[in-house]
Amino acid sequence: MLVLGVDTSCDETSAAVLSDGRTILSSIVASQAIHAQFGGVVPEYASRAHMQLIVPVVRQALEAAGVEYGQIDAIAVTNRPGLVGCLLVGVSFAKALAYSLDVAIVGVDHIEGHVFAARLAEPDIRLPAVCLIASGGHTELIRVDAWGEYEALGRTRDDAAGEAFDKVGKMLGMTYPAGPEIERKARGGDPTAFAFPRAMMRRGNPDFSFSGLKTAVRYKLDDMGALPEGDELRDFLASFQAAVVDALVIKTMWAVEDSGVPTVTLGGGVAANAALRERLVEDAARLGVSVVIPPRELCTDNGAIIAAVGDALLARGQRDGLALGVSASR
Amino acid sequence: MSARAESLVSTSAGESRELGRALGRVLEAGDLVALYGDLGSGKTVLAQGISVGLGFDGYVSSPSFIVVNEYAGRVPILHIDLYRIHDTAEIEDLGYRELFFGEGVAIIEWAERAKEFLPDERLDIHISIDAPDRRTMVLYARGDRHARVKSTLLKLWRERPQDENPHD
Q1: Nearest CB to B62; choose among A48, A163, A218
Q2: Secondary structure of chain B in the HEC alphabet?
Q3: Per residue in A25-57, pLDDT tens?
Q4: CB-based contact B94 A329, cutoff 8 Å
Q5: Which one of A168, A200, A247, B107 is most buried, counting C-beta atoms within 10 A?
């Protein structure tokens, strides 16, 4: 079965063709280059940008997969959570295409897509698993009992992990999104040079909080007067990054231990961070649980993970009609 | 600032949350609260309190990346964050009319990014960081309805039991 996955829930316009729920035939994520092709300003997110990009992105996904429109068996589209205006672009497009091709359409929860990245990376992954989803907008710990059966264990009470990276980067004069630049500039730094807080680190409390860390960084910078440079900047960033990674990994591993699951997985844009990936691998090895860390391109937003969820929903007999709506929340 | 502006001081995140909760209790559908203040000033903390006061007991996290969170309180709550908005075309693209002139209560963080699009009737709260645990909040009501909200809030706030420990 060939499923076309479409996602317009946030910044990227993406589409992918997935075969039998496992094999990614193509996955296209609209880049700045495609934006540039249409000229003008590149908004960080905008329904208008999605509107310009959706048709060429889907067309490119089909071409790269070597598939004609008529060969698509079903369409999976993100319909929650996200900006309603953005979601509507993908959903309206998917409905029109499903109607014209006379194929099934199914609405997908974007966060569930991030959970499925691990399944695409490792089809034989052993469940149950604890999955950490960390991105700019979300930070959640989810227990995956089966594909489609989840238990929310914890989530952020204020800022998301990716948001902490971006806002701290902004204080240091970096541009959005600052995560990759912080990771690069922190390399080789001393993570113990600055004492930044790890919030809510009580066992039994699976929620995260990054707002206090952001504020602590701000006060530290105020104290220092001038922005750190050179080695000091490297140590500063390494210390900040360690505070985020510590909070994420320690809480994730507590959840793994307490629930006795054999597997831990990652998803979401922050999962592209090398310090996080390395630390999770180390701690999982120490606990003797297996770890599935999807490749970066599956962690960041993409249509393949949406198609994967759609394939699983369809296999369970779920269908949405042309009345499929969108929702800002989950 | 005009004579209609009044300022309050909060000495902890817990106290700011309590102030938000008191405000949430007096808000009604159609009201709009615009929050202004630097990174780390506590806009989200205030929004959390407001949501509790509006009867929502779930998670209220920062919508900086996703722009809008919706919560079901005794009236619908739209928690909007314009942190990532940088020009007016983006505000128009967002569908600001539905967001700012909706049916429930709208709470807008980084409201300065949408100055010329905000409704004339609203409650502005400017937060400044005086010290790590001290914030000054300047309240400015625009329009009669929000002037009543402000005066009821200030009355509630000044008459609140002082021995109660604000939960953090």
Answers
A1: A163
A2: CCCCEEEEEECCHHHHHHHHHHHHHHCCCCCEEEEECCCCCCHHHHHHHHHHHCCCCCCCCCCCCCCEEEEECCCEEEEEECCCCCCHHHHHHHCHHHHHCCCCEEEEECHHHHHHHCCCCEEEEEEEEEECCEEEEEEEEECHHHHHHHHHHHHHHHCCCCCCCCCC
A3: 999 998 644 544 554 444 445 677 888 899 999
A4: no
A5: B107
